[in-house]
Amino acid sequence: MRVIEGAGEWVAPADGTSSRYEEHLRVPDMSLGTYRIPAGGTDGQNPHTEDEVYVVTAGRARLVTPGGEAPVGPGSVVFVPAGEEHRFVDVTEDLAVLVFFGPAEVVRGQAAT
């Protein structure tokens, strides 16, 4: 067992960037992190090679994909399949999202460890 402190909590990006991802856990079959976007910030992510589950813990925005869009807020849970374009837009409140990747996210072309 491992208790993961701080996962899903809102913390403003210290360097003034418009978004920040902090990984909390990595095992071969999954990884977990918190993605944070301040109100008015932009989401610059690209599609991932892994399936994702988003659990919104704070804030409000819309999640847009080629197939549609949905408002998200605390308690929203959204599945995004591998390879699907997606982006958070209209971030009206500081957004904190738990992100589960399965299998573990491949980082910068490197295999998950």
UniProtKB/TrEMBL annotation:
The protein's superkingdom reads Bacteria
InterPro entries reported in the protein's UniProt record: Cupin_2, RmlC-like_jellyroll, RmlC_Cupin_sf
Residue intervals of the Cupin type-2 domain: 35-99
- Record protein name field: Cupin type-2 domain-containing protein
Native organism is Polymorphospora rubra
